[in-house]
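R.M. (postdoc): so does anyone remember the format we settled on? I'll just put the structure tokens first.
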């Protein structure tokens, strides 16, 4: 079976695009080959800064013949119908058709059409120009004289050559001839831009990769990463240091070089007074270099590791010197930012009103920055007001949430008013990804409580399913308030996630709320903050994802959420109503979220808004429903609810309540007594949040339910008795519904 080697060589492709582009090329070509009737044994993609390569093994030499039977008109059809059939089938005479007989329809013509297969070379040459011309680059460019012509080739960077070779492993290969805008496919490629710029003739993949290696090109990106990581770790170890690993930077750097050469540079130790996070980001962002540290230490050393693309004759001294100059210049800027952020702003007299509004101390640098943020009316969102207004909303909400989390309200308030202050620092202006972290550092420098400083950094957390939660109750409270305000606000202005689009990361915010509530066991009635049923459903969706990831069955989660029961709150779950009148952060489109004094009464308001209790009910239901008693009760309960639902759908009369006087048979009397007792016990257990005991109480229905269906005809001829028995089934549905909607459970 022959193999196919394809290389598209261009000017440097941005590192962030290379991996996806190589994958796109493999999918586009293999899909096109399969669509044309070819099969292959395997395909692998490769990429470097200057080339995308495909190695396709075991490709058919030609596509299979295609046979098709095309049914025509009856043999006694008119001449025009027969002529149309001949044209459509590609026949020149009716003698080329076959006559088939059908007992009902009579005799009719059938054309047996055979489309012969095509050589693989022909198919490849046909599909490749279209793949290249329509390649899904995000922002392709045109170049050269041809770029002025309509329909000229567009590529991410100027395309320079194409290799396209086809043939068996141990025989001569052939160039598959095709051209795109004057670039003709050949067996010629080129090695390293500086070390080996001469043309190289290749025959097949093994020959190709060997010759590239000799020409100072490591084709496999994963191998380049391994070389860089190993050499960087070794050079750090040789200098008594350890490499600070950075997978994202390693991926990027491997896409910047074809022949990686690892070197070590340094900068003055005076710059180590700057926080390590700033040093690392400065060196990474500006020079794509790795940082190092002493083994076991958190702070960095003054040595950094760079990756060059050439073997310098001087051993890399000039490269190290040049990179060191740039690193020192950037660190000098960073040191300037760090120092200025700890000093006074020049216009303190203009910030007094904002300082009073937020209880700020203008003698402290971070307080000054918060006052400045408010005084400048920095917009959070056009429809949701300024950052200052947002902080006031979060402040009011956090004060109430502190009652549920048990956090110190004074520390919570201080953390909230300083949480966004570092937006006005020069360090965060230069490196936005340091927001929160720099706030914590500046807070500690000005003597803030450690919990307040930690909360300033942690109020952004968790950023995803694997990110850590805030460290303590103060941070948890501020994080909850921040995320809830965001969600309520964007729902209020109808800026919700749609499909794969979520520009404001609202799914992540909701998952963060779910994780905080469940993993820190916080009792919170979301309906006291969330007034929109659609938003509560959004929380339920995130909860489902979270619980399914932990192994919970989707049908059991749905059963609990569909039950519609309201659980009583105790302790921190009940909160006094928040303040928040005019001047407390309200905007026209986004009223301040507040906590209602009491949860909604039974049967009213939004159901299942205490996510911690939902999770506990799912856990208890999972344990119960997998037991023999649970499975048997499920079968009987589903029979009762399905029968009742069917009769309700038909409009059959159902009594408003069970009349004991109409219970004639022992089985229905026993079931009524059992349901009454089980309901009482289950509700008492639920009131005490003892869901396992609630399940056990319901399990006592198993015998009476089975006996009822064995002895009792529900649809009695007497309408009153029938309505009463249906009401009895309704009691079963209500009793089990205190825990879950059993009709949602599969099995």
């Amino acid at each position: 079976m022959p193999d196919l080697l394809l290389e598209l060589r261009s000017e440097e492709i941005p590192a962030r695009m290379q991996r996806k582009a190589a994958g796109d090329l493999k999918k586009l070509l293999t899909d096109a080959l399969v669509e044309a009737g070819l099969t292959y044994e395997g395909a692998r993609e490769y990429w470097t800064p200057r080339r995308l390569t495909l190695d396709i093994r075991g490709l058919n030499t030609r596509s299979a013949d295609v046979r098709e039977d095309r049914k025509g008109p009856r043999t006694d059809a008119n001449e025009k119908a027969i002529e149309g059939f001949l044209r459509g089938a590609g026949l020149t005479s009716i003698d080329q058709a076959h006559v088939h007989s059908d007992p009902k329809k009579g005799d009719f013509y059938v054309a047996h059409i055979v489309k012969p297969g095509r050589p693989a070379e022909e198919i490849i040459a046909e599909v490749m120009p279209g793949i290249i011309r329509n390649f899904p680059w995000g922002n392709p460019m045109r170049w050269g004289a041809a770029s002025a012509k309509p329909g000229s080739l567009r590529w991410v960077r100027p395309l320079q050559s194409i290799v396209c070779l086809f043939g068996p492993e141990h025989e001569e290969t052939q160039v598959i001839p095709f051209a795109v805008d004057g670039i003709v496919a050949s067996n010629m490629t080129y090695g390293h831009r500086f070390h080996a710029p001469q043309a190289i003739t290749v025959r097949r993949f093994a020959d190709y990769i060997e010759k590239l290696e000799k020409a100072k090109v490591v084709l496999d990106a994963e191998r380049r990463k391994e070389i860089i990581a190993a050499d960087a770790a070794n050079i750090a170890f040789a200098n008594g240091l350890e490499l600070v690993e950075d997978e994202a930077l390693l991926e990027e750097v491997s896409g910047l070089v074809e022949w990686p050469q690892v070197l070590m540079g340094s900068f003055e130790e005076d710059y180590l007074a700057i926080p390590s996070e700033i040093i690392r980001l400065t060196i990474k962002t500006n020079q794509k270099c790795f940082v190092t540290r002493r083994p076991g230490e958190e702070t960095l050393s003054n040595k950094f590791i760079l990756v060059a693309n050439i073997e310098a004759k001087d051993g890399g001294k000039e490269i190290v010197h040049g990179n060191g100059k740039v690193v020192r210049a950037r660190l000098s800027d960073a040191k300037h930012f760090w120092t200025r952020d700890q000093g006074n702003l020049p216009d303190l007299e203009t910030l007094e009103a904002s300082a009073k509004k937020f209880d700020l101390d203008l003698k402290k640098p971070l307080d000054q920055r918060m006052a400045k943020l408010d005084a400048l009316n920095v917009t959070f969102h056009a429809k949701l007001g300024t950052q200052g207004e947002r902080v006031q909303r979060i402040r009011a909400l956090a004060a109430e949430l502190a009652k549920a989390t048990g956090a110190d309200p004074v520390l919570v308030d201080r953390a909230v008013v300083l949480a966004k202050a570092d937006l006005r620092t020069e360090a965060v202006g230069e490196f936005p990804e340091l927001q929160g972290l720099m706030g914590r550092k500046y807070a500690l420098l000005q003597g803030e409580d450690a919990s307040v400083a930690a909360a300033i950094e942690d109020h952004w957390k968790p950023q995803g399913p694997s990110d850590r939660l805030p460290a303590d109750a103060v941070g948890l409270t501020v994080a909850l308030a921040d995320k809830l305000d965001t969600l309520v606000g964007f729902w209020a202005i109808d800026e919700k996630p749609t499909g794969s689009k979520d520009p404001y990361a609202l799914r992540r915010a909701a998952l963060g709320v779910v994780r905080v509530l469940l993993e820190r066991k916080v009792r919170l009635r979301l309906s006291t903050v969330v007034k929109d049923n659609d938003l509560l459903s959004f929380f339920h969706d995130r909860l489902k994802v979270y619980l399914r990831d932990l192994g919970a069955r989707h049908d059991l989660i749905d059963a609990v959420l569909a039950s519609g029961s309201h659980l009583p709150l105790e302790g921190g779950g009940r909160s006094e109503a928040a303040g928040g009148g005019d001047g407390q952060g309200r905007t026209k489109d986004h009223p301040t979220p507040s906590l209602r004094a009491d949860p909604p009464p039974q049967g009213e308001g939004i159901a299942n808004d205490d996510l911690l209790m939902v999770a506990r009910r799912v856990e208890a239901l999972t344990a119960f429903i997998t037991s023999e008693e649970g499975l048997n009760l499920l079968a009987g309960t589903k029979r009762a609810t399905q029968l009742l639902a069917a009769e309700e759908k038909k409009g059959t009369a159902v009594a408003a309540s069970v009349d004991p006087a109409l219970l004639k048979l022992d089985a229905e009397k026993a079931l009524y007594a059992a349901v009454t007792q089980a309901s009482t016990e289950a509700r008492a257990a639920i009131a005490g949040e003892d869901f396992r005991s609630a399940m056990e109480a319901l399990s006592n229905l198993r015998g009476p339910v089975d006996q009822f269906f064995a002895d009792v005809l529900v649809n009695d001829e007497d309408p009153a008795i029938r309505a009463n028995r249906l009401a009895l089934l309704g009691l079963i549905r209500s009793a089990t519904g205190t825990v879950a909607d059993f009709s949602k459970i599969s099995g």
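R.M.: ...and that's the designed sequence above, right after the tokens. Also worth knowing: The chain has five domains: 2-62+119-214, 66-115, 221-342, 348-520, 611-738. The longest helix spans residues 317-340.
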